[in-house]
Amino acid sequence: MYYIGYDLGSSSVKVAIVNAKTGEKLVALHEPQNEMEIIAIHSDWAEQDPNLWWEYVCIATKRAIKEANIDASLISGIGISYQMHGLVVVDKQGEPLRHSIIWCDSRAVEIGNEAFNRLEHDVCTTKLLNSPGNFTASKLKWVLENEPELYSKIYKYMLPGDFIAYKLTGIINTTKNGLSEGILWDYKDDTLASFLLKHYGIDPSLTPDIVDNFTNQGTVNEKAATETGLPVGISVNYRAGDQPNNALSLNVFNHGEVAATGGTSGVVYAVTNTLKSKEASRINHFAHVNYTKENPTLGKLLCINGAGIQYRWLKDNLASNSYETMNNKANEVPIGSDGLCVIPFGNGAERMLNNKNIGAHYCNLNFNKHNDSHLYRAALEGIAFSFVYGMDILKGDNAAINVIRAGNDNLFRSEIFSNTVATLIGHEIEIYNTTGSVGAARAAGLTDGDFEKFGANITKNDHVMTFVPNKNKVPYMEAYQNWKKELEIILNNK
């Protein structure tokens, strides 16, 4: 038997098929081969056509079944991961009424900020654990204000993953995990955040039925089976946003475990069992995949916009080298890069810096001492220091960091980067060779709730290596303190 998993991103739809018994990956691929279009008719808008997502789900599913060379009738369960915070609105026939307003669209920022102030910060941080911000609820309020005729036709609003599940099953539902990422969940009362919907003037009946995260959420109907090649009657058993799903893929379920990603931007996702926050405007809080009222595990998510994009910029504009060459040259330079500091925040406003846009900076550059090797090391160190800086914010806000787990396809492959983070945090970094679609496929079998066994299979199938903190922490601390001094100077002048 097999499970199939989907990871709906803004660039492509990824699909994986795994062995249901062992979790072993048979195939993982994506469609389209080029990135999906993001429609931006204004500079701060970002939209996509939900039906295009479905088209690529169908193409990728047929291709995956063919490339895995399996009998499709042996696929027994489906898991779905998806781009978070998006808004899909449909009519009574289930047809989208407009393009989805996706995660990177910022048109609703002021709507969320105004709600945060009018509802009072304490109320929002106690009940929502977040500012309403630029999330799904605020985007729906934008539709109400700016497209009232269209709003009047809405039957249900959904998250992107809810729409894919609907296209597979014909059933419209959602999860409390999904509602939490839209800032639509009241943690204090463990229910839909009706007080926020009331403030926005949104009818609560537009909310889909709520189902558990690891259960039969609907079965594939004949229409979807014809379009995808999947068997009729198999069930969608799991659904989660991409960051919680990334944590699941890395065996991150418990207080003190952290999932980290160092791609174009960086993400630190720390699981905690404490339903409190004093950093609701700098850290996002979402119900983790295993959240229940009895076991209220949260994901505390901190995003760093200026991360891998800094290193890629060096490669594309200055180095004309491969990352491997850059890493080798960086290894020739001592810890601290002989005083050269890189502040990597050149990819827009940084939420963890209270939404300041300070840009990227090269500090203490000495033309008589520093060369390209120093630039590469200082960049890796600067990005690593920004991760540590963010983790210090998390630790000051009721998070524990006992172990960090990361994928094998980003900055964490760099020894300089991972050793720097591990040594300064004082905990191991475990590297795993897995993807979101593989994690979603495996999660289709988690209806038994045996997270321990699930995690053991991840370790068995995917663990690549572990970075251990260096015993001599002093040079790392000195370099980090120097970096923080430069950052504080820049922040104080903004």
General description of the model:
It contains 17 helices and 22 strands. Helix 12 packs across helix 13 (372-395) and helix 13 packs parallel to helix 14 (415-425). Helices cover 37% and strands 21% of the residues. The protein is of the alpha/beta class. The protein has helices at 50-68, 109-118, 121-127, 136-146, 148-151, 160-169, 176-181, 194-200, 222-228, 242-249, 308-319, 323-330, 372-395, 415-425, 436-443, 451-462, 474-492; strands at residues 2-8, 13-19, 25-31, 47-48, 75-82, 88-90, 100-101, 156-158, 173-175, 185-186, 191-192, 209-211, 235-241, 257-262, 266-272, 284-287, 298-304, 341-345, 359-363, 403-407, 429-432, 463-467.
Q: Kindly provide the radius of gyration, computed on alpha-carbon positions and rounded to a whole number of angstroms.
A: 22 Å
Large-scale geometry: globular
Helix content: 25-40%
Strand content: 15-25%
Model regions low in confidence, pLDDT < 50 over at least 5 residues: none
CATH superfamily of the largest domain: ATPase, nucleotide binding domain
Largest sheet: 7 strands, mixed
- How many domains? The number is 2
Major sheet: order of its strands?
A: 16-17-15-14-20-21-22
CATH top level class name of the largest domain = Alpha Beta
